Amino acid sequence: MLLVLCVDLDDDLGRKTGFSTPVIGREPVEDAAVALATVDPEDSDVNVIFQGLHIYDDLASRDESVEVAVVTGLEGSDVKANRKVGEEVDTVLASLTTGEDVTALIVTDGAQDESVVPIIRSRVPIDGVRRVVVRQAQNLESMYYTIKQVIDDPETRGTVLIPIGILILVYPLALLGSLFNLPGLVLGVTSALLGLYLISRGLGLGEYLDESVERVRLSLYAGRMTLIAYVVAAALLVLGSVSGLNTVESQDAAAGGNLGAPLILAAFVYGSIQWFAAAGITTSLGQITDEYIAGRLEWRYLNAPFYVIAMAVVLYAVSAFFLGEVGIPYLATALTTGTLLGIVSTLTFAVAESRLSDGGPQAEGM
């Protein structure tokens, strides 16, 4: 048996005519269609019901087993409306007294009503979907529903509407800029905002920023030392950059403005490496503290501060040598000291980790 199922998702039939749904059978469905057409001739669901009747009559005239019914949802709630349609489909199927397998042909008036197709398919096989629209308004409702979905979806809304909004603001902002004799500045700022937005969307920076904010929030509530260490390290990096630039200026002035690119780099490193090293030590100690509190600390993690010190010693000596502040003996001593510091640190913590994991106090306690 084929069940011609007319879908009225927002329950225009029940609200406007008072008909109790579902409506099952040709005569009751025709009465419902006439009642709805009498109350509201412009309602698109009138076309849906009459189309269902037309399909029913056509199939019945060819002696096919067919039934027609109208099911409705609820106004204003897609989830509840879909649930109610499912319940009414169950009622319709329970009322069919036939030993044949039942399949359904769904008749709707647009894309919105077709959102219930998966609900109906879960209850009865579907042979097809027939969409009924007024010829003069072909695809109008589908376009409306598509635009509505774009506006309701936060992800799509941000992707589509924000660039359009910025473009629409170009003209009024240009007028405002012309009043202050700054049209170029206003257009430049607007173009920059649009470009930055499109780049951020293309690179996914919005998601990365949201994740970063969430990590910072969790770090605050979890009492993580890393967050404080990063803040202090950022301040040290700024101070180091300022110190490096001051050193570059003083060296350039001493050279009479003829300081080459290699010496500029050496001067910047010479003036900033102490601050950068302090930032590296701060972040590594913060990470070590958090790992210890979380019970995940491993001995090799303790190498980080010593590696930072070793690299700082080497870079400081090399930059000082290029600037003529120290001689070759000092440079050789610094290179040897940095290398030995890294080797000793690595061997010390490797041996400590090996002995503790093989039979030390931690191994005995496990």
Low-confidence stretches: 359-366
Following the backbone from N to C, one meets helices and strands in this order, namely EHEHHEHEHEHHHHHHHHH
Number of discrete domains: 3
**Inertia-based shape:** elongated
- Order of strands across the biggest sheet? 2-3-1-4-5
Short description, anyone?
The chain is α/β, with parallel strands linked by helices and 366 residues long. It has 14 helices and five strands.
What does this structure look like?
- 70% of the residues lie in helices and 8% in strands.
- It is an alpha/beta fold.
- It has three domains: 2-143, no CATH class; 153-203; 223-365, no CATH class.
- A five-stranded mixed β-sheet has the order 2-3-1-4-5, with helices on both faces.
- α5 links the parallel β4 and β5 (126-131).
- α7 (154-179) runs antiparallel to α8, α10 packs antiparallel against α11 (261-293) and α12 packs antiparallel against α13.
- The longest helix is centred in the last third of the chain and has 33 residues, at 261-293.
- The protein starts with a strand and ends with a helix.
- Residues 359-366 have low confidence and may be disordered.
